[in-house]
Amino acid sequence: MDHHCPWINNCVGFYNYKSFILLLIYTVLSCIHATVLVIGRLIFDSSSVLLPLEIACLWLFILLIIFIGIIASMLLVSFHFYFLLLI
Fold first, then answer.
1. With contact defined as beta carbons under 8 Å apart, do 19 and 13 qualify?
2. How many helices (H) and strands (E) does the chain have?
3. How far apart (Å, rounded) are the C-alpha atoms in residues 62 and 23?
4. 3-class DSSP assignment, residue 4
5. Widest CA span of the chain, in angstroms?
6. Which residues contact 85 (CB under 8 A, 6 or more apart)?
7. 11 catalytic residue (yes or no)
8. What is the rounded CA–CA span in Å between residue 8 and residue 71?
9. pTM, whole model, 2 decimals?
C-alpha cells in the first residue's frame, strides 16, 4: 500500500492517506475556483466585445477542458478506490 508521492515528497501509507486525499481534493477545488474566475472574467468583461465565433470557440474550449477534467478525475478516483480496496 505504501508508495512514494513526488508532489508531497513523502511516502503515502495507511496513516497519512487521509492527508493525501485531502491534498487531492483541495487541489481540485482550487483549480475549479481558478477556472471559474478566469472564465467569468473572459465572459463578463464589459470592456471587450466578443464576436459570435469567438464565443463559440470559448465555449468549445471550456467543454473540452471539462471533458478532460472528468476523464482525469475518473481515472484518479478509480485508482485510489483500488488502493482503498487493498487495505
1. no
2. 2, 2
3. 25
4. strand
5. 55
6. none
7. no
8. 23
9. 0.52
As given in the structure block, the three cell numbers for residue 5 are 508521492
Question: CB-based contacts of 5: which residues, under 8 Å, 6+ apart?
Answer: 11, 12, 20
Answer for the pair 69, 77: CB distance below 8 angstroms, yes or no. no
Catalytic residue, chosen from 5, 11, 31, 57, is 5
- Give 56's Cβ-side CA count (13 Å radius): 3
Q: How far apart are alpha carbons 19 and 78 in whole angstroms?
A: 18
Q: Over the stretch 3-28, which tens digit does the pLDDT of each residue have? A: 777 777 778 777 877 887 888 889 88
The residue count of the chain comes to 87
pLDDT in tens, 27-85: 889 988 988 888 777 777 755 666 777 778 878 888 898 899 889 888 888 887 887 77
